[in-house]
Amino acid sequence: MSRAEAMAAAGPRAASPLWQLSLFRSEVGTVFRRWRTIALLGVLAAVPVLVGIAVKIETRGGGTVGHEGGGGGPAFINQVTNNGLFLVFTSLAATLPFFLPMAIGVIAGDSIAGEANSGTLRYLLVAPAGRTRLLCAKYASTLVFCLAATLVVTVSALAVGALLFPLGEVTLISGTTVSFGEGLLRALAVAGVVALSLIGVAAVGLFVSTLTNSGIAAMATTVGLLITVQILDQFPQLHAVQPYLFPHYWLSFADLLREPVYWDQLLDNLRLQAVYAAVFGSAAWARFTVRDVTA
Question: Considering the chain, what percentage of its residues have pLDDT values greater than 70?
Answer without folding.
Answer: 85
